[in-house]
Amino acid sequence: MSLHKRLKVTFNAPVTLGFVIMCFIATLLGVISNGKITQIVFMTYHSSLTNPMTYVRFITHIFGHSGWSHFIGNASYLLLLGPMLEEKYGSKELIEVIGITAIATGLVNYIFFWNVGLCGASGVVFAFIILASFTGFKEGEIPLTFILVAAIFIGQQVYEGIALQNDISNMAHIVGGIVGSVIGYSLNRKNQFEM
Predict the structure, then answer these.
(1) CA torsion angle 166 155 130 134 (round to 10)
(2) DSSP label at 67?
């Protein structure tokens, strides 16, 4: 047996890596087009319900980012949390978390924030953060980590949404956190019953 085993790079978390790659491509297209492609395809906003792109953007807005720093911030969290979540819950469930978060944030933005364009994976990041806090879940218990994460992250978003005027969509973070909470609780309950 050789002491120098060859190292190989593995595609260990296909959904997470695929999602980050799609975000990278969408951000690159947005940067190259000076934001035009982002606005047309990768940003949700209040547009006519007769326009088919309105429905497409309810999902695709999670891929577009306003620039490289926005993308890098979200990609860092996705790459940190995604592989662990994908290993624990499975690729199919992670796709569901991403899809439900996209639709939920897109719809809430469309209905309640008519004059705000929304793009980026921040809602998915918050869903992942809250979902990660459920990793030690046991039936009949609420993990203290979940309570602390929810209080700190969601509380911060509520405060910033009320007290600060900035370009960050606190709504997407809050909705993503709620999606992560509901799915995390239901997935872990299901896993408890299967044991």
Answers:
(1) 170
(2) S
